[in-house]
Amino acid sequence: TPLDLEVTTIAEGSGSVLNSQALLAGKAEVNTNVPLVSQRYVTTEDPANADVVTLQAGQTLRRTDKQGDTGLLSAIVDRNTVDRKTSMPTNDPVGTIQTQPNQPAEEVPRDGLQYKFPFNSEKKSYPYFDLNARATQDIDFVEETEINGLKVYHYSQTIAPVDLSKVVNSPTNKLTLPAETWGVPGGTLPVTMTRWYTNVRDVWVEPETGVVVKGQEQLHQYYARNKDKPEIDVLKVELPFNEQTIEYQVQQAKDGMDKLSTFGRTVPIIAGILGVIALIAGLVLALRGGKGKQPAPADGDDYPPSGGGRHVDLGKSEAPTEQHDWTTDKTEEIPVQDPRRYDER
Asked: Could you tell me which residues come within 8 angstroms of residue 168 by beta carbon, excluding any fewer than 6 positions away?
C-alpha cells in the first residue's frame, strides 16, 4: 500500500428507502426508485512508515432527489492501520469508526481486508471485514476475468442477516410502535421490530497490485420480527462502481504495475553494477598487494619487502526509491444533521 494513497470511488443505483419523517408521523412509508449515490474517499494518515500505513475512509450515502443534508442517509469515517504488504490490519493502534458528527469515534478491532487486497493476490478466499456488521468473514475467489482489457480476480462475499441492535446501541435499530404504524394487523397494540442487515459484496481485483478495480454491493436493511421475513424496507439497493470510477481504478492498477515492474528491473541492474565494481576493486587490491612484495635474492639472503601497497576506500551506493502519485478529488466530513435521519442508514 503506498504512503500517498488518495482515491475516491463512486457507486450509483436506484432502490427503496424508508421515509423517516412519515414513520415519525405515524405511518411506515417506503419510497421506491430512489436515485442513490455512495461516495468513499480513502487517504493515508499517520502512523505510516516502511511497514505500516493508516487508511482513513470517509463514506456517505445520499439520495440525489433531495437537496443538501436532507438527502443524506448515512455518513461514516473509518480509520484502520494495515500492513503495507499484506493489507491486513495491525490493530496497533486499534481501528476506529465514527457514525455521528457530535460523538467521538469508537474503537473497533478487526482482522480482515477492506479497501485493498495484498500484493500478488491469489485465487483463494481472504478474510474481509464488513463495516456495517462490524465482523469478518471470508470473501471467496470466483473466477479470473478481464475489465477493460485488464486481468482481474473476482471475489464474492454474502453476509447473512445481522441483528444491528446487537452491533450498535442505537434506538433506531430496535423500534416499538403501534401495529397500525408498521402497517401490520393489531391496531394500536405495540409491535417491536428489529433492524436487520444483509449484503452481497463483489469485488474485482488486479492481482499484482491488489487494487480493487470494480466493486458492487447489494445492500438490504429492513425491519422485521423474524429475520427471514422482511416487513419494512429501510434500504434496498444495488450499488456498483460507476464507469468513471472503474476507468480510474484500471489506470491506478496499471500505474502500480508499471512501478513494480520498473523497481523489479532497476534493483537487479544496480545490484549487478555494484557487484562489478566490487569485483574490480578486489582485483585492484589484489594486484597492488602483489606488487608490494619483492622476491628473495638468489643467494638466499633475507631482505625486508619494499612498501608499495596503498589502501583503496570505495564509496557506497544505494538504490533509488520509487515515489508514488495516486491522487484524486477531495472528501467530506460528517455533517451535523437531524439524528432522526439516521434511521434511514
From this structure: 99, 134
Whether 307 is in a domain gets the answer no
pLDDT tens-digit readout, 15-68: 999 998 899 899 999 999 999 999 999 999 999 999 999 999 999 999 999 987
* CA–CA distance, 195 with 205 (Å, rounded to integer): 32
Instruction: Kindly report, residue by residue over 275-288, the tens digit of the pLDDT.
Output: 656 667 666 676 66
Amino acid at 203: V
Q: Range of 95's domain?
A: 6-259+325-330
**154 belongs to a structural domain:** yes
Q: Is residue 337 part of a domain?
A: no
pLDDT digits (tens, 9 = 90+) for 148-189: 999 999 999 999 999 999 999 999 999 999 999 999 999 999
- Residue 334: all three cell numbers together: 460528517
| pLDDT for the residue numbered 272 | 53
Within a domain: 286? no
Q: How many domains does the chain fold into?
A: 1
